Amino acid sequence: MKRLAIITTHPIQYYAPVFRLLHQRGNISVKVFYTWGDGAMQKHDPGFNRIIEWDIPLLDGYPYEWVVNTSTDPGSHHFKGIINPALNSQVAAWQPDALLVFGWAYSSHLGVMRHFKNKLPVYFRGDSTLLDERSGLKSAIRSLFLKWVYKHADHAFYVGTNNRRYFEAYGFELSRLTFAPHAVDNERFADNRTAGALKLRHDLGIDADDILVLFAGKLEEKKSPGLLLNAFLNLPPGNVHLLFAGSGNLKQYLEDKAFGNKHVHFIDFQNQQQMPVIYQACNLFCLPSKGPGETWGLAVNEAMAGGKAVLVADKVGCAIDLVKPGYNGYIFKSGDENSLLTCLTELTRSKKILEKFGENSGKIIADWNFKKIAEAIENKLTE
Question: Which of 1, 29, 186, 349 is buried most deeply by CB count within 10 Å?
Answer without folding.
Answer: 186
